[in-house]
Structures are given as structure tokens and as C-alpha cells.
Amino acid sequence: MLILRTLLFGPAHGHQIAKHIQRTTEDVLQVEHGSLYPAVHRMERKGWIISKWEMAKERNREFRYYRLTPAGRKQLAREESKWKQLAAAVATVMWPARRDPS
Amino acid sequence: MSLWNWLGARLAAFRERPDREKELNRELDSHLELEAEEQLESGLSREDARYAARRAFGNTTLVREDVHAIWSRGSLERFERDLKYGARSLQKNPGFTVVAVLTLALGIGANTAIFSAIDALMLRPLPFSAADQLVRIYSTKNGIPIRGTSAAGGPSALDMRDFRQNSHSFQKMVSYDAWRKNVSFGNSAEPEQMRVGLVPAAYFEVLDIEPILGRLFTEEENHEGKNYVAAINVRLWRERFAGDGAILGQKMRINDEIYTIVAVMPDVIPEWMESARVGPIEVWTPFASSGVLPESSRAERGDFALARMKPGVSLEQAQADLETIAARLATEYPVDESIGVAVKRLRDTRVGILRPMLFLLMGAVSLILLIACVNLANLLLARNSARQRELSVRAALGAGKGDLIRQLLAETFLLSLIGGAVGLALGQIGLAGLGRMHPADLPQLGSIGIDWRVLGFTVLVSLMTSLLFGPAPALTGTRLNLVDALKQGGRSGTSGRTTQRVRNLLVATEMAMSLMLLVGATLLVRSIFRLEHQRLGIRQDHLLKGHIYVPGVHYPNPAAIARFCDDFATRVRALPGIVNATVTTVYPPNNGWTQMLNIPGHPFTRIQDISSAQFGLADRHFLRTLGIPLIQGRDFAESDNAASPPVALISEEFKRRYFPTEDPIGRQIHIGPPAFLQIAPGANITDSADVTIIGVAGDFRNAGLAHPPEPQITVLYSQHPLVNYGFKDIVIRTAAEPRLLVPEIRSQLHALDPDMPFAEVQTMEELVEAQTGGQRFTTILLASFAAAGLVLAIVGIYGVVSFLVAQRKQELAVRIALGASRVTVLWLVLKQSLKMATTGAAVGLFGAWATQKLTSGLLFGISPVDPGTFAGAAVFLLTVAAIASAIPGARVLRIDPARTLRQD
Asked: Minimal Cα–Cα distance from A64 to chain B, Å?
């Protein structure tokens, strides 16, 4: 879900994705870079993202850029709502009083 | 997704793999470089930066494999890999592989052989166009076909005419017949007795067969006098006439009459269709009649009848159609009373009485296959637990449980394919054997072979076996506890309880199935032994019989026939080495000529109550030649001749049935149908003579080997000119080996008439053997299957006990060290295997009891649940099992406790 969310901002290559997740979660989620690739490839196989070798603007070399597909967007929406439900459920267990103020 | 798309996608993935691999490497490299650059910026040395990048990344190889797996999951590639591993592990263990493949091959080979036999006998389509429309028509009496399963059980010509005229389900119907006749081609070769088909053109039209050369018979040629035309089989044309193009118009002699060859027919009619022991029909002549059918011939049933139904007409409709007509005929004509009709598809008539035998054999080979599978499952179980360490290492290195199971299954798959291939070869050999046995009852067996249907069957069976024996061992084999298995090292503790239980169950199953085979085989062997060593009621040794036909052209009246027969027998009797000879129409074990009788004191009004008996014509040497005892009265004498009053000998059974209380000697009876049936005297089967009973002779088998003797009445052919036909047999008692005298006897016959063949020469022993051919065939096969099953079962129990001993070695050593006597310990091991064997035997006995239907039809004089056989087979099996387990069990006696306990 996080990978998909990252790609929502536009195409990125593997290293960028890893860094982005690390940065945005303020290093709470340290993705082992290696485990990123199986995940990305799995998504590509499922058709949620597509990949293409492209020149990076700032450096003079090619990277493999991943891009979200419409199917990927839908998947993101699905996972997001599922996550929301889960988070809400966890929240009610952890802090029941807050949910019921009266 | 269709299979093809799927396969295409897989193949594409397979092909693009190297590209993907390269790209992935490039991607990972660029990632590492970027990471290293970043680390470099944070002030590390170049070297350290690269290490840091690597650390942050994790295991690159693992990543590569994971990504790889994502793209190739479930692909052909993995299957290929599994097969490769499988092949390697089979190679590593050739002993196991050979035993496993042979076990499987035995099972699959037996199945292949029997399946091809069944395919040839029952499944292969008939060689005729629209063969589904072809039916045979049988006459029935009280619902039972009058000639059983014999094809020659058709309605009489008159009934057939009425069927033809009144039915509307058929395109064409035909009655025909086949007779043994003396045939000679040109003037060179020896005359031969052949079966000649007596057929109108409609016979070929029904079967839709066109002549290769020439023309079909015309309607006119079905009339007596115009019928001297013949059609010959193309095989005969090639063999006898070297495929001579000018064959049409050539002459041949049939029963000393000249026939003109008008057609060459293709060789398509299968041998079984007009089944008989005499071989295929290769010559056809028209079915001649005087043109007018007298009403008295309505009772003359027993021709062959064939018909072709109209397209779209079902068998039931055809049957109902004829039944309606038959019911009307039954009320109109007294001789048709309780006579019905049965229509059967031609293709269903081909196995007849052999059906139960084929089912039995099929059941037996399935059992063999099951035993083979069980054995293999057992072998694999043992092997997999021996491989426990290898598997654990694999699991520790990261193979998932699924991977392990898949790999073990791939191995069994390979095994079953190899087993199938070897089995096919074995089957081929077996078939050659079957072909050689080739019983007379099964002319079809001559043409069996392995074709694509059989091949398909074998592949299917092989795959099925791998499904049968594969999963259980694979599942139990992979139920590992990693840590335990590795820690234990070579130390063999006791294996899991489930594994042990599965193994016991398998051995018990094996025992059960081989016991069933054993029981079946024993029953058949005992039955056939009884059948063949049955008292025929005659002295069986040194008896020879041959058939002659005295043709009407040269021997125009019964007196001439009688004279010829007497001359022949006299000449034979004069030969050295001959004890006696008799010309007769009756000899054991079959007769088949039944006559209605009119016995004073046995009145009747209904057709079912008419007295009847087996009827035979002979000369006065009959009793003495065959060795039948005279019980009462006198034998035929020289003074009984054509001029003296006719006399008859009856059998004891005849006396019991018709003269239970009174003395039959001197009584007069009438041979022939009663007056109210209005059958004219002299018409074919009827004889108007009154005879005087002069003696009672011993019973002899006259209704087949398997049936008790029926009442028999025997008269002199010289005194009954009306039924003194040209068909005669000569039975000869010799002092020396009968076969050696055949040339002498033949030359005596040729001295009397050079055109007369001496046919169907057999000794009495050969005759009896030929009659039991079908059973003998089944028995030999079943016995060999039982032997194979027994061998497999022995291998199974031997293997299990060896394994058991090896596994419990430590425990047993401890027991011995603690003071248990070795015999007690041996008993401990034996007890376990005997328990399995006993359980198996009990189940097997039950199985044999439950499947008694399969054997009951084939047995003679022995019950399908014969207690002696059951007990004997069970005891035998248990003994064998005990021995098979005692041999490896004896290793217990050699255990050196000190050494064993120190060993690991």
C-alpha cells in the first residue's frame, strides 16, 4: 500500500521509493531495501504498476521507473479503506473510552 | 483462460527469463550504486560505503530468487526442475528404482495385455458400415434362446418369412446356414473339409459387402438346381489361385458337385461371427431350397439370422415389432407355441459365454495393479523415512513443505512413466503368449495387438498409479520435525506411529488382495481338474475320432451310405494296431441330436410334455468300441440288419426317466413327433419307425462335460434309412498311440473314395481339452496372476519386516541386553507381521466371498465358496508370509547387543 501510495506522486525508481517511505515515516518504517524488489515485481506481475527504463533528469544514467496503472489506483483505494477499517478496529480496542464520550 | 493461452504465456515467460534476469541485475546494481553514493556523501570511505549499501539492502541472492519466483511460480520451469531432481535421485538409488519399476511394470503389463484382449473381444468397432444397425435374431423358448449363445439359433425359414413380410423396423433380413462340406479345387490338391456358407445374396447386402470381383448371387440361384455357383474369400483366392485374374468362371468341387466361381469377396467378416471350432468361412454358395416351404418345416429352427434395422429404429422398437408377430404366430401354429424372438445387436454377440471370464480376468489384473501400487507405496514410505535427513536438510535450506511434496510426487510420476513403458513391453510379450494359447473359443484373440487405444489405456493407468501410490508416502514423508530429525542424526529412533500404521495397513491390504487371487485361481484349477478328469462313461484312452461326409451325389440312397460306412469301418478294423472301430453319429461328451419320442404309458396333450431323448445312429460295434458297459439285455448283433425289425439300446438315465418301475426290455416305442403336430413322416429330423428296446447300457456324457448325462437312445443306421444321412463320425479304439495310425486310416478311406476328406481328427483327450479350452485359458492366466500377486506380496512383507528389524534394532538390543531370550525377541517381530497377514487374510477371505459371482459361472462341480479352498489358501498364504518375514526376522538372532548399543 505504501509503495502504491508513493507512486501516486508520479513515477519513481526502486531507490527513490525506499527513500521516500523511510523519509515520510520519519525512519519509523525502515524498509530493508532488498525486500522492496520482490514486492515491486509482484505488483508489476499483478498489473498494478508498469515499469520502463528512463533517463533520470538530474543524473546522466538510466533507471527503471515504476508507474501506477488504473488497476493499481483501484487497488490502492481498496487497501486504504481496508486499512482504515483495521486501524479503527484496533483503536476501539485500545482506547474504548474515547470512542464513547457520553 | 484457455489451456493454450496459459501454455503460451508460460512458454513466453520461460523464454524471456534470461532478459528478465539481466534487467533485474541492472536494476539492483543501480540501486546499490545510488545507495553507496549517498553513504559516500555522509562521509564514509568508498569501501565502507559499498558495504553499508549492501547491509542496507540485505541478501541480494535471496532477493534475486524471490523476484525470480514471482515471475516463474507454477511454471513449466519448476516442473522441469522437479523432474530433473527426481531423475537424479532415482539414479542415485538404482536398486530401489529397478525394484519399483519392475513392480509397476508387472502390474501395468498385465493390465495392458488383458485390456488389449478385451479391446479386441468387446470394444473394437465392427468392420461394417453403420454396424449399429446390424442385429442377430434368435428364437426363444419360454424366453430362453433355444441354442443358448450360439449364433445358429435363428427362427425357422417360415417364421423368418412371416417376420420379413409383417415387420417394418428392418431394411433387410436374411437367414443362412453354414455346413461342413468336402471341397476340392481343380484336381491337384487333397480334398478338404471346409465350412461352406449357404447364403442368399441378401447376406452380403445386409452386411453391406461388395464383391472385389464378379457379382452377388441372383434370386434365381437360390432355387435347387440353379445353385451351382460359388463365391470365395479373397484370402483363398490369393492362397489357392495365386490371385489369378481369370478366376471367374473357374470350377471347384463341393461335395463332389461342380460349382462355378462367380465372385471374390473381401476378407472382412470376422471369424467370431459364424463362430465354430472349424475355422472361418471362406466359400459361399446360395442357400438353395425347392422354392416352396412346406408348413411342416416351421419347426426347423437353428439357422443363422441377421438383419439390418432401418436408420433411427431403436433395438427396443425392433424387438417389440418382432415380438408382436411372434405372439401371433404362437397362437396360430402349434409348433410355435411358447416360441418367442430375441433381437440382439451383432456387436453384443461377440463374447457370449466368455463375458464372465473376461470380467474375472479384468478384476484379477486390477488386483495385481493395486498390489503393485501398495507395494510401491510401501517401498516409498520406507525410502522416504530413510531419506528423512536429506529432506530435513532441504527444509532447513529453505524448501517449503509444498516444494518437498511436489518433488517427491515428481519422482513417483517419473517412476510410473518408466514403469508404464516397461509394462508396455511386458504386455507385448504377454500378448504374444496369449496369442499362442489362442483357445478355440476365442478366434478373435488371433488378431489382438497393441494399438493407440491400448497405448492410451496404458498411459492413463500409469498416471493413475502414480496418483494411487504417490501422495500417501509423500505426505507422511514430509511431515518432518526439523530439529528432531537433524539432531537424531543417524540414530534410528522409532519412526512415527502414523507411518507405521500406514505401512501395516498397506501390507494387510496386499495380503487380502493376493489371497483373493489365490482363492480364485485355486477354485478354477480344481474345477478344471474335475472337468477334465470327469468320468465320461467310456474308456477314454486310445480313442481316435474323425468326421466324414458321404455326399449324396455318389451315394444316392441310404443303403449306399450304409454300405460305404460299413466298408470303411471293416477296412479300418482290419488294420494292425486297431482294436475296434464304429461308425456313429454320437460320442461323448456332446451329442446335440434330440428326438421326440412316443412312449406307451406316457400320454401327453401339450407340446412341453412330449418325451424326448438324445438320439444317435451307430453300427453294432458301438458299445464295444467306446467301452460302454451293457447293464441289461443284449447288445446289437449281426442278425440286426436292414431286413430285421428295428432295435434300440437305451441308457440307464433313459430307463430311470421313462421306465422307473417296469422292465424296458422288449418294450416298443415310437421315435418321432406325435401326430397332432402334423409333421409329415420322413421330413428331415423325423423318423416314423417303431423300435424294440433290446438292452440297457451305461450312461455316458452326451450333453457336454459340465452337465449330467441325459436319456440316450441309440439305434442302428442300417435300420433307419430315413435318418441315415451322409454326416458320420468314426470312433476307433487302438492298441498303439492313436495319432500314429491316422495316415493308415486316411489311406483306407481314400482307397474307397479318393475325393473324401478325413476331417476333424482328434483323440478323445484332445477333444476334451479343446472343450475346456476357454476355462483352461482363464485358469492359466488367473494362476499366473495369483503367482505374480503372491510374489509381490512376499516382497512387500519381506521389505516391511527388514525395515522393522533395522529400525527396532536398538530397542531389541536393549531387550536382549536386559536378558530377553532371542527367540522371544524374534517372536516379537514375527508377531507383528503375522498380525498384519492375519488381518489381511481375513479381509481377503471376505473379499473372495463377496466376489463369488465373478467365478461362479466358470466353476464346475465346486462351490465358489468352497470351504476347503478358502481354508487352504489362507493357511498357505499365512505360511508363506511367516517364512517371508522369518528370513529378515532372523537377523534379530544375530544382533550383538554390545556392538549395537555402542554403535551410535
From this structure: 7
Range(s) of the domain holding residue B151: 143-337
Domain A2-97 sits in CATH at 1.10.10.10
Closest by Cβ to B31, choosing from A15, A38, A61: A15
Asked if A45's CB is within 8 angstroms of B31's CB, the reply is: no
Looking at the structure, tell me whether residues B729 and B781 fall in a common domain: no
Which stretches of chain B sit within 8 Å of chain A by CB?
23-24, 26-28, 30-31, 34-35, 56-60, 62-63, 66-67, 70-71
Indicate whether B367 belongs to any domain.
yes
* DSSP at B125: P
What are the two backbone dihedrals, phi and then psi, of residue B629, each rounded to the nearest 5 degrees?
Answer: -75, 145
Q: Do the Cβ atoms of B261 and B247 come closer than 8 Å? A: yes
Q: Are residues B668 and B623 in the same domain?
A: yes
Report the 10 Å Cβ neighbour count for B657: 16
pLDDT score for B490: 42
In whole angstroms, what is the distance from residue B435 CA to residue B433 CA?
5
ipTM exceeding 0.90? no
Asked if residue B705 and residue B559 are part of one domain, the reply reads: yes
Cis omega before residue B439 (within 30°)? no
Are the C-beta atoms of residues B710 and B657 closer than 8 Å to each other? Answer: no
Residue pairs between chains A and B whose CB atoms are closer than 8 Å: 48
How many Å apart are CA B260 and CA B266, to the nearest integer?
A: 18
User: With an 8 Å Cβ cutoff, are B70 and A64 in contact?
Assistant: no
Provide the β-strand partners of residue B197.
B178, B284
**What tens digit of pLDDT does each residue of B630-659 get?**
999 999 998 988 888 889 999 999 999 888
**Contact B31/A41, CB-based, under 8 Å?**
no
Residue B201 in domain: yes
Instruction: Please name the residue of chain B whose CA is at the shortest distance from the CA of residue A14.
Output: B31
State mean pLDDT over A78-100. Answer: 79
Q: Is B83 helix (H, G, I), strand (E, B) or coil?
A: helix
Do the chains contact at B30 and A42, CB–CB below 8 Å?
no
Record: contact B26-A64, CB cut-off 8 A:
yes
Tell me the nearest-neighbour CA distance from A90 into chain B, angstroms.
Answer: 31
Predicted TM-score (pTM) of this structure: 0.65
Q: Which residues of chain B have pLDDT under 70?
A: 1-20, 68-77, 147-151, 186-189, 275-279, 290-292, 296, 351-354, 385-386, 398-400, 435, 437-450, 472-473, 476-499, 605-608, 675-689, 903-904
Across the interface, of A15, A38, A61, the residue whose CB is closest to B67 is A38
